[in-house]
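Sample entry (85 residues):
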Amino acid sequence: MKLDWPRIETDTHFISVGFDEDLDKAMVNATREAVNFLTEQKQVPLNKYEAYSLVSMVGDCRVSQIVDIRKGVHCMIPKSIFTKK
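Predicted structure, serialized as C-alpha cells:
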C-alpha cells in the first residue's frame, strides 16, 4: 500500500493528516486522504463522490500544527458510522 500521508487509528476514530506551508492546502490534503481512506476501506463500499459527501457530514477536521513553517490538519472519521444498527 502506498500512502502519501500517515494514517492514524484510535479506538473511536480513523484519522487522516495533511501538511503544507499553506493551511488551506493542508486542509485539502487531510480531506483528500480521508476520502481516499473511505474509498479504500472494505466495510462499506463507497465511490469517491459518496466518500466526499460522507467526509463533509461526519469528518471533524482540526488544525494540529501552525507553529512551524509547515501547517498541519487532521481529519477524524468516527468508527461509529460503520456499526450495524
